[in-house]
Amino acid sequence: METLETSPQSSGSRCHRSGHGGARFGRGIFILLVALAAGFIGGYAGKSLAHGQNGLLSETMEPAQMDEHVERMVKHLAVEVDATPEQKDKLAVIAKSAARDLAPLRGNMKRARQQAIDLMSAEKVDRAGIENLRAEQLALMDAASKRLTQALADAADVLTVEQRKKLAERAQRFGRRFQHG
User: Fold this and answer.
1) Where are the beta strands (DSSP E) in 65-120?
2) 147 is in which domain, residue-wise?
3) CA–CA separation, 145 vs 159, rounded Å?
4) Total structural domains in the chain?
């Protein structure tokens, strides 16, 4: 059950989950997954923006270029958790596969944006068209979320408990940077 409490130290409000330690553990796992996803996506998108039209999310990027970007990201992750060369290789395979599967989303997002612009600028509001676009985009995001979750679980299988704890600590620090109050 969610309760809203206002902390006297801040003017904002925070949501706290009341209950048992299991809820905290579940929330910790969720935060870890979100942080890892954000790290993957942030690195993925950041590298693409930093490299212009031929970035990682570019429809025109060659698979070899994408693999090179992913290799760099995995190298940074491997350093963070003191991964062995074998672990690094396994993580690279997992990340490359996920990147290849997720890359077509860039084109889908661009097409959906144009569809939304067309729908909103039409003479008559097409509510059914807007709803169809919304439903299509939710289905795409659900598929992307499932694929990313699969990659994260596969990566977690490769890492030791200690390495996953290092990532969890990093996720905690990452999460604190975005809290207000």
Assistant:
1) none
2) 34-177
3) 21
4) 1
Distance CA(143)–CA(154), nearest Å, equals 16
- DSSP-derived 3-state class of residue 67: helix
Asked whether residue 4 is assigned to any structural domain, the reply reads no
Is residue 40 one of the residues assigned to a domain?
Answer: yes
- 103 contact partners, CB below 8 Å, separation of at least 6: 56, 57, 59, 61, 66
Inter-residue contact 116 to 133 (CB < 8 Å):
yes
Report helix, strand or coil for 77: helix
pLDDT in tens, 115-171: 999 999 999 999 999 999 999 999 988 999 999 999 999 999 999 999 999 888 888
Compute CA 64 distance to the chain's CA centroid, rounded to the nearest angstrom: 22
pTM: 0.61
In angstroms, how far is the first alpha carbon of the chain from the final one? 23
Q: Report how far residue 156's alpha carbon sits from residue 133's, in angstroms, rounded to the nearest whole number.
A: 34
Residue 5 placed within a domain: no
pLDDT tens readout for residues 91-124: 999 999 999 898 888 778 888 889 999 999 999 9
Residue 149: both structure tokens together: 């979750």
Q: Tokens 């977690």 belong to which residue? A: 156
